[in-house]
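Might you be able to check the C-alpha cells below? Thank you kindly.
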Amino acid sequence: PADDPKKGLIKECKWQTFGCGSAISSTSMMSVMVTENDGMTIENALDLKAMDINDRLGGLPNVKLHCSVLGDQALKKAIEDYLGKA
C-alpha cells in the first residue's frame, strides 16, 4: 500500500562512530549508499549487506571486514526503531 513505511525513502543518514578508519569509512559509505539518487527505500536498506558496503569501498583488508558490519547493523537497528514508531 501507498502508506507502507517500508516504501519510504531514506533522505538523510546521520551517524557517529568511534573506531578505526575502516569502521568510519564503512559507515560513511553506507550513509552515501542509502541516500544517493534521491534515497533508498527502507525495504531495500534492510536488504543492504555488509559485503555490499565493502564492495563499494573497493574492499577492506580481511582483518577489517568486521568493520563493514558495524554500520550495517546500526542501520538495521535504526530502521527497526523507526518502523516501531511509524
